[in-house]
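pasting for the record
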Amino acid sequence: MLAGTADGTPSSDRSVDAIRRYYDDFAEQEQDRLAKDVAGRVSFEIHRRFVERYLKEGQLVLEVGAGPGRFTTVLAEHGARIVVTDISPVQLQLNEANVTAAGAEPAVEARHTLDVRDTSRFPDASFDLVLAYGGPLSYAFEQERQALAGLLRVLKPGGILVASVMSLWGSWRARLPGATHLAIRYGTDVTDAVIRTGDLRHVPGMVHVCRMFTWEQLTILIPECGGEILAGSASNWASLEDPTVLEKIEDDPELWARFLAYETAACSSLGSRDGGTHILFAARRGKG
């Protein structure tokens, strides 16, 4: 049984509160997540290229799970007007400080503390684009349908949702030593439950919990919530391999540019979309 259900309180409520505290405590470490090593820098580039397909100057963008502002500044560079949101007040403070330091603060129209499960403060058809990177939908737990439907609801006609979720198979691939350790320590019943449900709350004592997805699950979930899938991508593929090779490639501008082109193509391939730590997708409201 998942924690938090014995007294009738939805486990997702307690879990989301724990996630808020986690990111409050995580603070500035989140700023470094996509920059501290070469694999993170590749992942940032894949995310950036994916969203840039849909950016146009003057768009009003709702950024969900904005964190310390790495993609807030990308949106500002493309002439967007941005409503910045995050579940963590501490992350919002860091966002303001970092975006201001980057000279991008004039692009920000407002900041709000926001739980992705409840976007009711925003009217229907309010935004040209919604960006939900960092996997906020993976923190909605049992209420992912409610959360996803809410993100689609606030899109204007023709508007685009660009989002990421944590990847089940890609995370298993990237963190195989840790997954094996869990099986040895807690038994295969625990790892079987995680693989079956994608829910890390089955792991005793796990601090950073989330719900992981497969691409196949997203192809079912998104239409069920009123969306139409436009594109998908893994967050990383070859860049999950030997980091020493990547460091050598990064030192050569020509090789680096070529590698990023290959990596972008590989991540977008249908056969690779489950292979990264996150799955990226673009969707719009269905016509039905």
